[in-house]
Amino acid sequence: MAIGIGVLGYGYWGPNLVRNFWATPGCRVVAVADPREITHKAVAETFPRIDTCADSDDLLARRDIDAVVIATPVSTHYSLACKALDRGKHVLVEKPMCQSSAEAKDLLARADRAQRVLMVDHTFLFTGAVQTIVRIIRRGELGRICYFDTTRVNLGLFQPDVNCLWDLAPHDLSIVDYLIDDEVVAIEATGYCHMNTGTPDMVFMTLHYASERVSHFNLSWMSPVKIRRTTIGGTSKMLIWDDLDEDQKIKVYDHGIEIHAEEERPLIVPQYRIGDIHSPRVPISEALAGVAEHFVKVIHGETRSIMDGNKGLRVVQLLETAQHQLDKSLAHIAAQRAAASVMTKRDL
Question: Which tens digit of pLDDT belongs to each residue from 321-334?
Answer without folding.
Answer: 999 999 999 999 98
